[in-house]
């Protein structure tokens, strides 16, 4: 199993494509450039089984419908943000993109609890990690020692909390109680920027000291 980081959309948000030897794939946060992403997936001869959304801010969802239409695969999102995909005010696109506001179809599956999620050969552990947004979810692949954290934790930084539903104390609590309990060699596949590890952030992240 391997994964590929693809910066997409207006803010170059990291989409992640996780694939197995059978060319089946999971797409995490397809943020934009839908035609480009679909073409790349087809060129790689991949068959997406699902789209996993860490949260529903506009820069993480822009290519969801393109991928769904091309590959007939479902999208997963936490129930706290069930209405955000179809509401440009909630997903922030009306504020930041004006006439290019994003309105897409509702999620096919709503996440309601922390529980195992198995799709084909892909076995994830779900962590509810609110704070950046109320429905932020992190997807952990234990066997591959990687967690897809969206905009919760970055290399030497953390997610912003000044958007609707953001809560700084809640974000820090999510990071400390969920992410920092993972093994230190766990790769953190962030929503923006370069991947990091849990150990690096425990040692170097200035936002996590003194909590």
Write the layout of secondary structure elements.
Layout: E1 2-8, E2 13-19, E3 24-28, H1 34-43, E4 47-52, H2 64-71, E5 75-78, H3 93-97, E6 109-111, E7 116-119, E8 122-128, E9 137-141, E10 146-150, E11 153-154, E12 157-158, H4 168-179, E13 187-190, E14 196-197, H5 198-204
Parallel strand pairs: 3-4, 4-5, 5-6, 10-13
Antiparallel strand pairs: 1-2, 2-3, 7-8, 8-9, 9-10, 11-12, 13-14
Helix pairs in contact: 1-2
Description:
The protein has five helices and 14 strands. With 211 residues, the chain is an alpha/beta fold. A six-stranded mixed beta sheet has the order 1-2-3-4-5-6. Strand 13 and strand 14 form a beta hairpin. Helix 1 (34-43) runs parallel beside helix 2.
Features:
211 residues; alpha/beta; Metallo-beta-lactamase, Chain A; 6-stranded mixed beta sheet; 14 strands; globular; MBL_Glyoxalase_II; Hydroxyacylglutathione hydrolase; hydrolase
Concise account of the structure shown:
With 211 residues, the protein is an alpha/beta fold. The chain is built from 5 helices and 14 strands.
For the CA atoms, what is the radius of gyration? 16 Å
How far is it from the N-terminal to the C-terminal residue, by CA?
A: 36 Å
Q: What structural category arises from helix and sheet content?
A: alpha/beta
Structural domain tally: 1
Main beta sheet? 6 strands, mixed
Order of the strands making up the biggest sheet: 1-2-3-4-5-6
Percent of residues in β-strands: 25-35%
Query: Spans of 5+ residues with little confidence (pLDDT < 50)?
Result: none
Helix content: 10-25%
Could you give the count of β-strands? 14
Per the CATH scheme, the topology name is Metallo-beta-lactamase, Chain A
Order of helices and strands: EEEHEHEHEEEEEEEHEEH
What is the subunit arrangement here? single chain
Shape: globular
CATH architecture: 4-Layer Sandwich
